[in-house]
Design brief:
Elements (H helix, E strand, L loop, with lengths): L1 H12 L10 H12 L3 H14 L2 H15 L15 H38 L4 E6 L2 E7 H20 L4 E2 L9 H6 L5 H11 L3 E2 L10 H30 L2 E3 L18 H24 L9 H6 L2 H19 L2 E3 L1 H9 L6 H13 L8 H9 L6 H9 L5 H9 L9 H4 L5
Parallel strand pairs: 3-4
Antiparallel strand pairs: 1-2, 5-6
Length: 424
Amino acid sequence: MRVEVEWLLFLAARGMFGVTPVEAQQAEALRAWAEHFGQPEIDELARLEATTRHDVKAVEYLVRARLTAQGLDHLAELTHFACTSEDINNLSYGITLRAAVQQVWLPRFDAVVEKLRTLALEQRDQPMLAHTHGQPATPTTFGKELAVVVHRLQRQRMRIAAVEFPAKFSGATGTFSAHLVAEPSAEWTSISREFVTSLGLDWNPLTTQIESHDGQAELFGRIAHANRILHNLATDVWTYISMGYLTQIPQAGATGSSTMPHKINPIRFENAEANLELSCALLDSLAATLTTSRLQRDLTDSTTQRNIGVALGHSLLALDNLLKGLGEIAVNPDALAADLDANWEVLGEAIQTVIRAEVAAGRSRIADPYALLKELTRGKRATASDLADFIRGLDIGDAAKERLLALTPATYTGLASELVDYLG
């Protein structure tokens, strides 16, 4: 309704076909009606569509009736002028989708990213045993691991925000044929471009009857990618909770299990995980379907596009759950410290790398540093004293020995803390 009203006002403002421009007060009243329509208009559309069996034609008739009610009958034939239904539909979807992403989805996404950024900065120095392939690995910091997620999400955010919202307004098969016959002297491509961009959309000059939906497919692919990064976050946080690295803050009145009073279930992250999967399934289907239309037009896009709100809605639910869930967890330094202290063998990487440097510098004659450490540590638990005795017996320089003897799993985090600064 908004697009239909804006188009007829646009034509009238330019005096097309000798039509007198609409007075400002009348134009604003018409716009307000279209912008704020409610149940009476919905009911009337349903009544009209029962006869027309065509949704856009029903909208056209409703707009015509409104013009009559406002004493603007002289504008009647500018309603839906030279338009195919898809001219109206693609602009409507473009306006709605742009608003949904920019005014609703992105602000919620940004709130999650900002919460993660805050946690990353707070926990940048908190040592944590890493786990590659589910096995103890070179330590990191909890903040650095969160920073990895933030960095990934920031990258996708830039790509989502940069997506264009292409729109067409060129008639039955994208040729301006009816337009040109009606008024051969008009610069219809310029008129179309000006109208489309006035609605905040990007003009597409080359289309069939429909806008090709490539912009939508790109957008849905990028949001799905962001969803999958968030899904990775949800499963990792769930795992850290199960490992005891994170504790859940009890919420007053909440029940974790109907039978086990002690439990606090990580439901926020489980709900986020499920909603992200549903969102991706729909977004993937939309992106795949919308890029194909038989010859100059088929209606497969019409059905699938009705699920755009559902796809974004599941993602929005996930963002809500993640934001709330991240506010209900706390890092458990004792558990992190205990796990680090129980896995001194992770220093094997440091020891064999130092030996290699010593060999290269001519301060050691050890033949195969990797094999030496593999024999000592692979599949075994090594204690602090085991490694200290081993280091003291190594054929390496005294300075290197001192560095290794001073090293602990908790201090073997490299530049993890400093890397958080790359968040900017």
